[in-house]
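[agent] plan:
  1. take the single chain provided in the ticket
  2. run structure prediction with default settings
  3. attach structure tokens to the ticket
  4. add a short note for the reviewer (M.T.)
[agent] executing step 1
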Amino acid sequence: MSESASKGQTALTAEVKAIIGTTAERIEASSSWGIEREGLRRFTQAIMDPDPLYWDDAYAKTTRYGQVITPPIYCSYLARRAQPGEEDSVTLAFKENPNSDGIGGIREGVKGALPPIPTPLKRILNAGNEIELRQYPKLGDRIFSQAKYHSIKESVGKDGTHMLIVTTETIYTNQDGEVLCMLRASGIRR
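[agent] step 2 finished; step 3 output follows
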């Protein structure tokens, strides 16, 4: 669909509406040995968060958690990390499409991914994320994730171009099925 063809035409077609609520397969987001101290150390250094709650056992024991925990966003990081032996999804996206924006298509076809949205709108702009934390993951926890298309809405730009605002909701649970957090990520398809 050319830009001029998208003006005046709805992007929220019956096919797009039909995938709202589609849920992907539940997969293990962490490695089979769970959250490891070394991975947590590297992550907290990368986000530059020196909180001793994430690395100091003696300190963590004095807190209401009683043990080392992870930052709230750690679950979403685990779900994007390539497992041993897998090729990085961003590298794959650029192999398939050298003009990739680095966001669109990087999870399509991957175990636990949602099906592609049936739209010719391929450009994606991040429209924001929100995370609802229920409990902090701990060392040794095995993390599982399951995504669904939470909502898809249409918006029309000032120039009359139709866009989709796609919100996915991913629920992260531990090995006991307890909800750790819910991540809602929105993107604008144009």
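[agent] step 4 note for reviewer: The chain has two domains: 3-35+70-189, 36-69.
[agent] ticket updated
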